[in-house]
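user: Please review this fold.
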Amino acid sequence: MVARVRPLRPRPRPRFVAVPSPSSPSSPSSRVASVSSWDVWPVGIEWDEFRSLHIARCQQCADSFASSSSTEADDWTDFHRCDPELVALLALVTSGRAA
């Protein structure tokens, strides 16, 4: 009998670095465009060197989590759930439609 090994949780998200834009042309002569990883993942982690903390932030609801442990920050990003009413309110305010 062959034993199967299954990971118990998803692999950690990559830290934020510039990644090639998916809409950039594939021509080698064209300039390579970059986009932030924030454009790819709505919840992500940055390293705050001044405070020596990993800062996890959600772009949709503006919630955040700070920890000296990268594992704790990764866990927060994996299990974070936005409040739908707060997301809708923030979208209304940031889109310029609010009075």
